[in-house]
Amino acid sequence: MRAMLIANPKATSTSRRVRDLLFRAFSGDLDLEFAETAHRGHAVELAREAAAGKYDVVLALGGDGTVNETVNGLLAAGPSADVPALAVLPIGSTNVFARALGLPAEPIGATRLVLDALRAGRHRWIGLGMADDRYFTFCAGLGLDAEVIRVVERRRDTGRRPDPTLYVRVALREFFTRTDRVHPALTLERPGHPPVTGLFLSFVANTAPWTYLGRHPVDPFPRAHFSRGLDVFAMRSMAVRPVLAALAGMLLPGDRPVRGRDVVNVHDASRLTLRADRPIAFHLDGDYLGERTEVQFRSVPRAIRIVI
User: Fold this and answer.
1) What is the pTM of this model?
2) What are the protein's UniProt keywords (predicted)?
3) Is the CATH number of domain 2-124 3.40.50.10330?
Protein backbone atom coordinates (compact mmCIF):
# COMPACT_ATOMS: atom_id res chain seq x y z
CA MET A 1 0.00 0.00 0.00
CA ARG A 2 1.55 3.29 -1.14
CA ALA A 3 1.35 6.14 1.34
CA MET A 4 2.69 9.64 1.83
CA LEU A 5 3.36 11.11 5.26
CA ILE A 6 3.02 14.91 5.15
CA ALA A 7 4.62 16.49 8.22
CA ASN A 8 4.62 20.07 9.41
CA PRO A 9 7.99 20.65 11.12
CA LYS A 10 6.67 23.83 12.80
CA ALA A 11 3.59 22.29 14.41
CA THR A 12 3.44 22.89 18.15
CA SER A 13 5.24 20.20 20.22
CA THR A 14 6.57 18.46 17.13
CA SER A 15 10.12 17.14 17.07
CA ARG A 16 12.40 15.29 14.73
CA ARG A 17 12.48 12.32 17.13
CA VAL A 18 8.69 11.98 17.18
CA ARG A 19 8.50 12.23 13.40
CA ASP A 20 11.18 9.58 13.00
CA LEU A 21 9.40 7.25 15.45
CA LEU A 22 6.12 7.60 13.58
CA PHE A 23 7.79 7.06 10.23
CA ARG A 24 9.31 3.80 11.48
CA ALA A 25 6.00 2.72 13.00
CA PHE A 26 4.22 2.97 9.64
CA SER A 27 7.07 1.79 7.43
CA GLY A 28 6.48 -1.85 8.38
CA ASP A 29 2.94 -1.74 6.99
CA LEU A 30 3.22 0.80 4.19
CA ASP A 31 5.38 1.68 1.23
CA LEU A 32 5.88 5.09 2.82
CA GLU A 33 7.21 8.33 1.39
CA PHE A 34 8.07 11.18 3.75
CA ALA A 35 7.31 14.79 2.74
CA GLU A 36 7.98 17.79 4.99
CA THR A 37 6.23 21.11 4.45
CA ALA A 38 8.41 24.15 3.84
CA HIS A 39 5.88 26.99 3.71
CA ARG A 40 2.20 27.79 4.13
CA GLY A 41 0.18 26.04 1.44
CA HIS A 42 2.85 23.40 0.82
CA ALA A 43 0.69 20.59 2.25
CA VAL A 44 -1.91 21.44 -0.43
CA GLU A 45 0.70 20.94 -3.14
CA LEU A 46 2.01 17.68 -1.65
CA ALA A 47 -1.45 16.19 -1.16
CA ARG A 48 -2.42 17.15 -4.71
CA GLU A 49 0.66 15.29 -5.96
CA ALA A 50 -0.31 12.25 -3.87
CA ALA A 51 -3.82 12.25 -5.36
CA ALA A 52 -2.46 12.59 -8.90
CA GLY A 53 0.05 9.82 -8.19
CA LYS A 54 -2.71 7.42 -7.10
CA TYR A 55 -1.39 6.90 -3.59
CA ASP A 56 -3.62 4.78 -1.36
CA VAL A 57 -3.26 6.77 1.85
CA VAL A 58 -2.00 10.19 2.92
CA LEU A 59 -1.04 10.68 6.56
CA ALA A 60 -1.18 14.26 7.85
CA LEU A 61 1.14 14.90 10.80
CA GLY A 62 0.46 18.34 12.21
CA GLY A 63 -2.28 20.55 13.58
CA ASP A 64 -5.67 21.51 12.17
CA GLY A 65 -4.06 23.83 9.62
CA THR A 66 -1.93 21.04 8.17
CA VAL A 67 -4.95 18.75 8.00
CA ASN A 68 -7.02 21.43 6.27
CA GLU A 69 -4.34 21.99 3.64
CA THR A 70 -3.98 18.23 3.09
CA VAL A 71 -7.74 17.84 2.62
CA ASN A 72 -7.82 20.66 0.08
CA GLY A 73 -4.95 19.13 -1.85
CA LEU A 74 -6.51 15.68 -1.89
CA LEU A 75 -9.84 17.08 -3.10
CA ALA A 76 -8.41 19.54 -5.63
CA ALA A 77 -10.25 17.66 -8.41
CA GLY A 78 -13.32 17.00 -6.24
CA PRO A 79 -14.48 14.08 -4.09
CA SER A 80 -14.05 10.61 -5.57
CA ALA A 81 -13.56 7.03 -4.46
CA ASP A 82 -10.16 7.25 -6.22
CA VAL A 83 -8.91 9.96 -3.87
CA PRO A 84 -6.41 8.60 -1.30
CA ALA A 85 -7.80 7.98 2.16
CA LEU A 86 -6.70 10.42 4.87
CA ALA A 87 -5.14 9.44 8.19
CA VAL A 88 -4.74 12.16 10.83
CA LEU A 89 -1.82 12.16 13.28
CA PRO A 90 -2.38 15.19 15.55
CA ILE A 91 0.65 17.09 16.75
CA GLY A 92 -0.68 20.65 16.98
CA SER A 93 -1.94 22.78 19.84
CA THR A 94 -5.69 22.05 19.73
CA ASN A 95 -6.39 19.28 17.17
CA VAL A 96 -10.15 19.88 17.04
CA PHE A 97 -10.72 17.75 13.92
CA ALA A 98 -8.80 14.74 15.24
CA ARG A 99 -10.63 14.88 18.58
CA ALA A 100 -14.00 15.22 16.83
CA LEU A 101 -13.17 12.01 14.96
CA GLY A 102 -12.54 10.28 18.28
CA LEU A 103 -8.75 10.18 17.97
CA PRO A 104 -6.44 10.93 20.90
CA ALA A 105 -5.08 14.47 20.80
CA GLU A 106 -1.47 13.26 20.64
CA PRO A 107 0.33 11.35 17.88
CA ILE A 108 1.37 8.14 19.65
CA GLY A 109 -2.15 7.16 20.69
CA ALA A 110 -3.51 8.20 17.29
CA THR A 111 -0.84 6.12 15.57
CA ARG A 112 -2.00 2.97 17.35
CA LEU A 113 -5.60 3.51 16.22
CA VAL A 114 -4.62 4.38 12.66
CA LEU A 115 -2.35 1.34 12.37
CA ASP A 116 -5.14 -0.92 13.62
CA ALA A 117 -7.52 0.61 11.06
CA LEU A 118 -5.01 0.24 8.22
CA ARG A 119 -4.41 -3.41 9.05
CA ALA A 120 -8.16 -4.06 9.21
CA GLY A 121 -8.87 -2.08 6.02
CA ARG A 122 -11.21 0.16 8.03
CA HIS A 123 -12.24 3.65 6.97
CA ARG A 124 -15.12 6.08 7.38
CA TRP A 125 -16.68 8.50 4.89
CA ILE A 126 -17.37 11.95 6.32
CA GLY A 127 -18.93 15.12 4.99
CA LEU A 128 -17.07 18.42 4.83
CA GLY A 129 -17.99 22.06 4.53
CA MET A 130 -16.96 24.42 1.73
CA ALA A 131 -16.43 28.16 2.06
CA ASP A 132 -16.36 29.55 -1.48
CA ASP A 133 -13.82 27.22 -3.14
CA ARG A 134 -12.07 25.89 -0.02
CA TYR A 135 -12.99 22.86 2.10
CA PHE A 136 -13.08 22.97 5.88
CA THR A 137 -13.22 20.05 8.27
CA PHE A 138 -14.86 21.42 11.41
CA CYS A 139 -15.46 25.18 11.58
CA ALA A 140 -15.33 28.56 9.88
CA GLY A 141 -15.91 31.94 11.44
CA LEU A 142 -16.40 35.62 10.69
CA GLY A 143 -15.95 38.26 13.35
CA LEU A 144 -14.44 38.09 16.82
CA ASP A 145 -13.12 34.51 16.74
CA ALA A 146 -11.28 35.20 13.48
CA GLU A 147 -9.91 38.45 14.94
CA VAL A 148 -8.53 36.45 17.88
CA ILE A 149 -6.95 33.89 15.55
CA ARG A 150 -5.36 36.71 13.53
CA VAL A 151 -3.61 38.06 16.64
CA VAL A 152 -2.59 34.60 17.90
CA GLU A 153 -1.04 33.76 14.52
CA ARG A 154 1.05 36.93 14.71
CA ARG A 155 2.23 35.86 18.17
CA ARG A 156 3.06 32.37 16.83
CA ASP A 157 5.20 33.95 14.11
CA THR A 158 7.36 35.42 16.88
CA GLY A 159 7.79 32.00 18.49
CA ARG A 160 5.01 32.24 21.11
CA ARG A 161 3.35 28.94 22.01
CA PRO A 162 -0.45 29.23 21.45
CA ASP A 163 -1.66 27.71 24.73
CA PRO A 164 -5.26 28.18 25.97
CA THR A 165 -4.32 31.09 28.25
CA LEU A 166 -3.01 33.04 25.25
CA TYR A 167 -6.32 32.60 23.42
CA VAL A 168 -8.27 33.71 26.50
CA ARG A 169 -6.13 36.82 27.03
CA VAL A 170 -6.29 37.81 23.37
CA ALA A 171 -10.06 37.20 23.26
CA LEU A 172 -10.63 39.44 26.29
CA ARG A 173 -8.46 42.21 24.87
CA GLU A 174 -10.09 42.02 21.44
CA PHE A 175 -13.58 41.98 22.95
CA PHE A 176 -13.09 44.96 25.25
CA THR A 177 -10.74 47.15 23.19
CA ARG A 178 -10.64 46.18 19.50
CA THR A 179 -13.73 44.54 17.99
CA ASP A 180 -16.69 46.68 16.93
CA ARG A 181 -19.43 45.93 19.48
CA VAL A 182 -21.75 48.72 18.30
CA HIS A 183 -22.24 48.32 14.54
CA PRO A 184 -23.27 44.81 13.38
CA ALA A 185 -21.89 43.99 9.94
CA LEU A 186 -23.23 40.55 9.00
CA THR A 187 -26.34 39.25 7.27
CA LEU A 188 -27.16 35.53 7.06
CA GLU A 189 -28.97 34.35 3.93
CA ARG A 190 -30.40 30.87 3.22
CA PRO A 191 -32.50 29.66 0.29
CA GLY A 192 -36.18 29.65 1.24
CA HIS A 193 -35.69 31.71 4.41
CA PRO A 194 -35.82 35.45 5.11
CA PRO A 195 -32.40 37.06 5.65
CA VAL A 196 -31.21 37.50 9.23
CA THR A 197 -29.62 40.93 9.62
CA GLY A 198 -27.78 42.74 12.40
CA LEU A 199 -25.24 40.03 13.28
CA PHE A 200 -21.89 40.77 14.93
CA LEU A 201 -20.24 37.38 14.51
CA SER A 202 -21.01 33.95 13.10
CA PHE A 203 -19.57 30.44 13.39
CA VAL A 204 -20.34 27.84 10.72
CA ALA A 205 -19.76 24.24 11.81
CA ASN A 206 -19.32 20.92 10.05
CA THR A 207 -19.16 19.00 13.34
CA ALA A 208 -19.08 19.51 17.10
CA PRO A 209 -17.45 20.90 19.16
CA TRP A 210 -16.45 24.34 17.92
CA THR A 211 -13.14 24.23 19.80
CA TYR A 212 -11.54 23.16 23.06
CA LEU A 213 -10.39 25.12 26.08
CA GLY A 214 -7.66 22.77 27.21
CA ARG A 215 -9.46 19.45 27.56
CA HIS A 216 -12.91 21.00 27.84
CA PRO A 217 -15.10 21.21 24.70
CA VAL A 218 -16.62 24.58 23.80
CA ASP A 219 -19.80 23.71 21.95
CA PRO A 220 -22.42 26.18 20.66
CA PHE A 221 -23.92 23.62 18.25
CA PRO A 222 -23.80 20.10 19.79
CA ARG A 223 -26.10 18.65 17.08
CA ALA A 224 -23.58 19.36 14.31
CA HIS A 225 -22.14 16.18 12.82
CA PHE A 226 -20.02 14.97 9.89
CA SER A 227 -23.05 13.11 8.51
CA ARG A 228 -25.31 16.19 8.37
CA GLY A 229 -25.30 19.65 6.81
CA LEU A 230 -23.87 22.81 8.33
CA ASP A 231 -24.81 24.40 11.64
CA VAL A 232 -24.60 28.13 12.40
CA PHE A 233 -24.26 30.08 15.62
CA ALA A 234 -24.50 33.89 15.46
CA MET A 235 -24.91 36.79 17.88
CA ARG A 236 -27.14 39.86 17.51
CA SER A 237 -25.52 41.61 20.47
CA MET A 238 -22.00 42.02 21.78
CA ALA A 239 -23.07 43.41 25.14
CA VAL A 240 -21.34 41.74 28.07
CA ARG A 241 -24.38 40.01 29.57
CA PRO A 242 -25.64 38.15 26.47
CA VAL A 243 -22.08 37.20 25.48
CA LEU A 244 -21.38 35.77 28.94
CA ALA A 245 -24.68 33.88 28.85
CA ALA A 246 -23.79 32.42 25.45
CA LEU A 247 -20.32 31.39 26.65
CA ALA A 248 -21.82 29.70 29.69
CA GLY A 249 -24.16 27.76 27.41
CA MET A 250 -21.24 26.65 25.23
CA LEU A 251 -19.43 25.21 28.25
CA LEU A 252 -22.38 23.26 29.63
CA PRO A 253 -22.55 19.51 28.85
CA GLY A 254 -25.50 18.17 26.89
CA ASP A 255 -26.95 18.14 23.40
CA ARG A 256 -28.93 21.40 23.43
CA PRO A 257 -27.62 24.30 21.33
CA VAL A 258 -26.99 27.67 22.94
CA ARG A 259 -30.18 29.72 22.97
CA GLY A 260 -31.18 33.25 23.89
CA ARG A 261 -32.87 36.38 22.59
CA ASP A 262 -29.63 37.54 20.97
CA VAL A 263 -28.60 34.13 19.59
CA VAL A 264 -29.29 32.82 16.08
CA ASN A 265 -29.12 29.04 15.46
CA VAL A 266 -29.32 27.12 12.20
CA HIS A 267 -29.13 23.32 12.01
CA ASP A 268 -28.37 21.01 9.08
CA ALA A 269 -28.21 23.63 6.30
CA SER A 270 -27.08 22.59 2.84
CA ARG A 271 -26.25 26.14 1.68
CA LEU A 272 -25.96 29.60 3.20
CA THR A 273 -24.25 32.93 2.59
CA LEU A 274 -22.80 35.43 5.03
CA ARG A 275 -22.52 39.01 3.76
CA ALA A 276 -20.83 41.92 5.50
CA ASP A 277 -21.26 45.63 4.93
CA ARG A 278 -17.55 46.15 5.66
CA PRO A 279 -14.51 43.85 5.46
CA ILE A 280 -14.57 41.43 8.39
CA ALA A 281 -12.02 38.90 9.66
CA PHE A 282 -12.45 35.32 8.41
CA HIS A 283 -10.92 31.96 9.36
CA LEU A 284 -11.24 28.31 8.31
CA ASP A 285 -10.32 25.50 10.70
CA GLY A 286 -8.39 27.96 12.84
CA ASP A 287 -6.34 29.48 10.01
CA TYR A 288 -6.79 33.22 9.46
CA LEU A 289 -7.54 33.94 5.79
CA GLY A 290 -7.89 37.71 5.71
CA GLU A 291 -11.00 39.90 5.58
CA ARG A 292 -14.14 39.22 3.53
CA THR A 293 -17.37 40.96 2.62
CA GLU A 294 -19.09 37.76 1.45
CA VAL A 295 -18.59 34.02 1.93
CA GLN A 296 -20.77 31.32 0.40
CA PHE A 297 -20.97 28.05 2.32
CA ARG A 298 -22.22 24.63 1.34
CA SER A 299 -22.22 21.14 2.78
CA VAL A 300 -20.43 18.36 0.85
CA PRO A 301 -21.72 14.93 1.98
CA ARG A 302 -19.38 11.91 1.90
CA ALA A 303 -16.49 14.04 0.72
CA ILE A 304 -13.48 12.06 1.97
CA ARG A 305 -12.46 8.70 3.46
CA ILE A 306 -10.83 8.81 6.91
CA VAL A 307 -8.71 5.92 8.18
CA ILE A 308 -10.08 5.30 11.67
Assistant:
1) 0.95
2) Kinase, Transferase
3) yes
